[in-house]
Design goal:
Blueprint (H helix, E strand, L loop, with lengths): L1 E7 L4 E7 L5 E7 L15 E2 L1 H19 L17 H6 E8 L5 E3 L9 E2 L7 H11 L1 H8 L7 H11 L1 H5 L3 E3 L1 H10 L3 E2 L1 H6 L3 E2 L4 E2 L1 H7 L8 E2 L3 E6 L2 H7 L6 E7 H8 L8 E5 L3 E7 L11 E4 L10 E7 L3 H10 L7 H8 L10 E3 L17 E3 L8 H25 L6 E5 L7 H11 L2 E5 L3 H12 L6 H4 L5 E5 L4 H21 L1
Parallel strand pairs: 1-5, 5-14, 9-12, 15-21, 21-22
Antiparallel strand pairs: 1-2, 2-3, 4-7, 6-8, 10-11, 13-14, 15-16, 16-18, 17-18, 19-20, 22-23
Helix pairs in contact: 3-5, 11-16, 12-14, 13-14, 14-15, 15-18
Length: 512
């Protein structure tokens, strides 16, 4: 018996097939092999076509089915036909979906997208969220939504309503990226409380849809999809999707969550005080709280975690830094030789001392940063000396700057009562860099534990919980493999370098 998990990101769609009995991943793949394009027609805009996600999902599904069937991805049988993957498809007991958070997908009555999705790092809606925050009152928004409306899905829809009124009139339902993928799989439109909370559509104080925010923006309640539990049957693979993907018709979809709650699930982070982190295109520290709480300045976000229920408060406090791996990849493309790999970058940067001989980078060049009060400050290099610094310094300053931005946000989380002594992370993306790991541990004083997992494997195991195959999360993640532990070191040196970085950030913020 197998479980299939999808992770629909802005860079690629990843899929994994997990053996439900052993908990081991038997097949995994992602598509495309290079980063998927992000459309940016104006500064601060970021869009993707929902159909692109679906096409990428089709490619990756064929790959993992072929792998699990003992075939090489893309191989053909002796007659020239596609490999037979039907036996694997029939053995898939449930499907789980993880997805990039905060995106807006608008569909018509035929379930066709009306425009490209406005995705997570698009900052055009900031003025709409801030206007609602002021008009409704900061205390009301924070006590009910646990955040300001900010740049989330509801504010993005307000932008569409004002700037594309004819298109807005044609909207039948709005949904998050994962809701759209579930719709394509099943033909059923639905969403979750966790999803609604990330879009600012959920009222935690009243325990229902945030009608007061819908009224503020002039949205009809009917524009939202029906609510289903995070762990439960949310639909079944329809005939059209089964034929396109090679899956068995009727396979249940039993789990859905945004990528950061799902990453925490993947690392078995469910209870208060537990913390997960990722550092891909953006960087995130995600801690679980057992109390309904918020940052008075709304610089970090609070959403319903995957196991939040009316009877049990489980909130995810989320620090997000938009400019993380995207800065590191920019540095590789634009500063390093064409054939340079990340391992080579780490090697030359490791020769530079902590603090980079005075050069530093503020990594905020990927849209408005919530942790900076939704300001779009841009990326800044400071302290650069043409006679001292070279490529190695810039690469190390990149990684230290990302780490210091984490520290800046984690101090805000500490002010909310989070005591971060241990960070769980998958050994992927920036956490593949020994320098990044050591700098994060040394700067924050937290022990880092690395695990062999990823979002698609977590989504598969989440599906197992939702289908009742596992009795609880501890059984689902009993086989989670810890790979490495990094203890804090060189804390005084990192503290001194962070103080210089923070002073420069505060100077920049005063000029904004």
């Amino acid at each position: 018996m197998y479980l299939l998990g999808y992770d629909v990101g802005s860079s690629s769609v990843k899929a994994s097939i997990v053996d439900a009995g052993t908990g081991k991943c038997v097949a995994t793949s992602y598509y495309p092999k290079i980063e998927a394009p992000i459309l940016s027609e104006q500064p601060g805009w970021a869009e993707q076509e929902p159909e692109m996600w679906w096409q990428n999902l089709k490619h990756v599904t064929r790959d993992v089915l072929a792998q699990a069937s003992g075939q090489k991805p893309g191989s053909v049988g002796s007659s020239g036909s596609s490999p037979d993957t039907s036996s694997v498809s029939r053995d898939i007991a449930a499907i789980g979906i993880s997805y990039q958070m905060h995106g807006l997908v608008c569909v018509d009555k035929d379930w066709e997208p009306l425009r490209p999705s406005i995705i997570w790092c698009d900052s055009r809606a900031v003025p709409y969220g801030e206007k609602a925050f002021r008009h409704l009152g900061e205390e009301r928004c924070l006590s009910h939504l646990l955040n300001s409306p900010g740049n989330f899905t509801a504010a993005k829809l307000a932008w569409v309503k004002e700037n594309e009124p004819r298109l807005y009139e044609r909207i039948h339902k709005i949904m998050l990226p994962g809701d759209y993928i579930a719709l394509k799989l099943s033909g059923t439109a639905c969403t979750t409380v966790s999803g609604l909370s990330e879009g600012m559509f959920w009222d935690f104080k009243e325990g229902r849809v945030a009608d007061f925010l819908l009224d503020e923006f002039g949205f009809s309640r009917d524009i939202l999809a029906d609510i289903v539990p995070t762990f439960a049957e949310q639909g079944r693979v329809c005939r059209a999707a089964a034929e396109e993907l090679g899956l068995a018709e009727g396979t249940p979809i039993t789990y859905r969550a945004g990528d950061q709650p799902n990453n925490a699930l993947s690392l078995n982070v469910f209870e208060p005080g537990e913390v997960a982190s990722t550092a891909g295109t953006s960087g995130v520290v995600y801690g679980v709280s057992g109390k309904v709480n918020y940052d008075p300045q709304s610089r970090v976000n609070t959403f319903a975690h995957v196991n939040h229920t009316p009877q049990q408060d489980r909130l995810g406090i989320l620090l997000c830094i938009n400019g993380t791996g995207i800065l590191n990849s920019w540095m590789r493309r634009n500063v390093c030789p064409e054939d340079f790999h990340y391992t080579q970058m780490n090697q030359i940067a490791s020769m530079v001392p902590i603090g980079c001989d005075g050069v530093g980078i503020l990594p905020f060049g990927n849209g408005a940063e919530r942790v900076l009060g939704n300001r779009e400050t841009g990326c800044h290099v400071f302290g650069l000396n043409f006679n001292i610094h070279n490529r190695s310094h810039l690469i190390r300053a990149t990684q230290e700057g990302i780490v210091f931005s984490f520290k800046y946000g984690m101090d805000i989380m500490a002010g909310m009562g989070m005591d971060i002594r241990k960070i769980h992370a998958g050994k992927a993306n920036m956490f593949l860099s020994p320098m990044f790991r050591e700098a994060l541990a040394g700067t924050t004083g937290a022990t880092i534990e690395l695990f062999n997992t990823d979002g698609s494997v977590g989504a598969a195991k989440g599906a197992g919980i939702g289908a009742g195959i596992y009795k609880d999360h501890n059984e689902a993640f009993a086989t989670l493999e810890r790979l490495e532990v990094i203890e804090p070191d060189h804390q005084e040196e990192y503290a001194a370098a962070y103080a210089v970085w923070k002073e420069e950030l505060e100077k920049q913020l005063k000029t904004q």
